[in-house]
Write a structure and sequence with these properties.
Strand order of the largest sheet of chain A: 1-2
Low-confidence stretches of chain A: 1-5
Oligomer: heterodimer
Shape of chain B: globular
Distance between the termini of chain A: 39 Å
Radius of gyration of chain B: 23 Å
Strand content of chain A: under 5%
Distance between the termini of chain B: 11 Å
Helix content of chain A: over 70%
Mean pLDDT of chain A: 88
Largest sheet of chain B: 2 strands, antiparallel
Radius of gyration of chain A: 25 Å
Structural class of chain B: mainly alpha
Mean pLDDT of chain B: 88
Chain lengths: 297, 263
């Protein structure tokens, strides 16, 4: 822990030496721990994607065959594209619902704002898989929604299309990721300086005009961050599709996970994850470029 | 503060109500059925009981899983607090060109999808010959929540005036005394909120856990296994208890976490 070193008087030579030694040790530690537990695993993971499996045995030679298999085998690219579309849909649903909620929260005052914000954030503090369980219990063939509809006489057979398909995956993911989308938009809205809003009102703008010309442009960056959050988190998920997707709800994340489970082809799984990672990095890069471009306006 | 018209408030209120319904509806339905039975497409209103809770209390597998999850959360938060604070101090005091690169590495597990972090660690543990256990889960969670702790502590640290440290040193305090009696007390609220948020994140985290877990069962793993065999009704009681726990944690967080509303 090096404090502001320039203000620390090093009086004697021995103390200076000890201080120098101390600084070297802390610096080495500061780089070593993230290096070993974050960077090194990522490097190993990248290298793994260039190995291959032959008759159940991992061959440690660098080849591109995993990547050519991804692009040439007709089974993978369509699932990849479908997963991207799915996550775009999730992201869109999240934004459409999160923006009005964040806007309402930002318009509340004092304690009410505080408490209501918390109400929308509490679901983030619950176990992910518990939430999926609860949603599954609602949507299932034997689930609460079907039971209610049966009870009310709206239907006489349980609806089967509520669960175990891609729509169910999209809806469940949207519910799970909504709080993640609300927060960045809310923070962006809160950061808008009050005097700008006052100025807009003083100059005779209606609340709609103020929104359209002032608030929306200023909150766009947070909105895009929210969309990116939802998209990236949805993309890598394999638990939700596995639990509510059934056989028709195959997603890219599930295919990756299965390579590390029963398919037991780690190099291929790693290569598929690298494809996923490249897409994520591209999305993050686009987001930050956009943010910077707006910043310069 | 944003001003909106009455009509707009009503429309936004309806949407917010709908969002609350989808966020809490499933949870509350589960809570409801932890007390009441359901037969022949009708709620058994006379069947109110704590049977599900009693069954949960007797389910040793679930209790062990919950305890393991709490242990992992506490251990990961403890490690992340020490590491994150140390790294924040390092960044703040360093003038090295590499400090930005180091910061990026710290943020990586937070920016990437959890599946990438989980798989990298899985491969790393195999290469390093570290058997998967509760400890590998702790490492996974520490790496995941580190960025959050680091960011919160660093923000607070950068807002402190350097004259504070200078005064302390001028008055003859040692570096350790300055840290212990001047910096640490000013950082405590930040560290407290970081701890709560990190614990909540760790409790919620499922993807990394499932990838790096060993045979010691934690909550995500237990429920993941149940998915194949079928859920027992006492899981509804678990949903209720977790909902209560999370709400209490959130109320605790109010005491520490400052939303950006207070300017």
């Amino acid at each position: 822990m090096s404090l502001r070193s320039d203000v620390i008087p090093a009086s004697t030579e021995g103390e200076e030496l000890r201080l120098g030694l101390y600084r070297i040790v802390t610096t080495v530690l500061a780089y070593a721990i993230p290096g070993v537990f974050i960077l090194l695993p990522l490097v190993l993971f990248l290298v793994q994607s260039f190995f291959y499996v032959d008759h159940g045995v991992e061959v440690r030679e660098l080849t591109l065959r995993n990547y050519t298999r991804f692009f040439s085998d007709a089974a993978f690219v369509p699932v990849f594209l479908r997963t991207c579309l799915l996550c775009l849909a999730v992201s869109a649903i999240c934004l459409i619902l999160a923006y009005p909620v964040a806007y309402l929260l930002a318009s509340l005052q004092g304690r009410r704002k505080y408490v209501m914000t918390l109400v929308f954030v509490v679901p983030l503090m619950m176990s992910y898989i518990i939430k999926i369980y609860a949603i599954r219990a609602i949507l299932g063939g034997n689930g609460f929604l079907n039971r209610i509809l049966l009870f009310l006489g709206v239907i006489d057979q349980p609806l089967g299309f509520l669960i175990f398909n891609l729509q169910a995956v999209a809806l469940t993911l949207a519910v799970l990721l909504l709080p993640f989308a609300i927060l960045p938009i809310f923070i962006a809205l809160e950061r808008i300086p009050r005097n700008i809003l006052d100025a807009s009102a003083d100059l005779g703008a209606s609340s709609w005009q103020t929104f359209r010309k002032v608030i929306w442009p200023l909150s766009l960056q947070g909105t895009i961050v929210a969309a990116t959050f939802a998209f990236v988190l949805a993309l890598g998920d394999f638990v939700t599709p596995q639990m509510v997707g059934g056989t028709s709800g195959m997603t890219f994340g599930r295919i990756i996970y299965s390579q590390f489970g029963f398919a037991f082809n780690w190099p291929f799984g790693a290569a598929l994850s690298v494809v996923l990672l490249v897409l994520v990095l591209a999305v993050l890069l686009l987001t930050s470029l956009f943010a910077r471009a707006r910043h310069q306006l | 503060m944003i001003r909106i018209s009455r009509t707009a408030t009503a429309v936004l209120g309806i949407i917010a109500g709908f969002v609350l319904l989808v966020l809490y509806g499933p949870l509350l339905v589960a809570v409801f059925f932890s007390f009441f039975g359901f037969q022949n497409n009708a709620v058994q209103w006379d069947s109110f009981s704590f049977a599900a809770y009693a069954a949960l209390a007797n389910d040793e597998g679930i209790i062990e899983a919950v305890v393991n999850t709490l242990i992992v959360g506490a251990a990961a938060v403890g490690l992340a607090l020490v590491l994150g604070t140390a790294l924040a101090f390092h960044y703040n005091g360093s003038r090295s060109r590499f400090r930005e690169a180091l910061q990026l590495v710290i943020f990586l597990p937070f920016l990437m999808p959890p599946i990438i972090t989980g798989l990298s660690l899985l491969i790393f543990f195999r290469e390093a010959d570290i058997p998967r256990s509760l400890w590998t889960v702790v490492i996974g969670h520490t790496v995941f929540v580190l960025a959050l702790v680091y960011r919160i502590v660093l923000t607070r640290l950068q807002s402190l005036r350097s004259s504070l440290v200078e005064a302390s040193l001028d008055l003859g305090a040692s570096r350790w005394q300055t840290f212990r009696y001047v910096l640490l007390p000013s950082l405590l609220p930040a560290i407290g909120s970081a701890a709560i948020l990190a614990f909540a994140l760790s409790f919620d985290e499922t993807l990394i856990t499932l990838l790096v877990t060993g045979t010691d069962s934690t909550l995500p793993m237990r429920l993941w296994g149940m998915m194949r065999m079928g859920f027992t009704p006492d899981i509804n009681a678990l949903v209720a208890l977790i909902l209560v726990g999370s709400t209490l944690l959130a109320l605790l967080a109010i005491r520490f976490v400052k939303l950006p509303t207070q300017q």
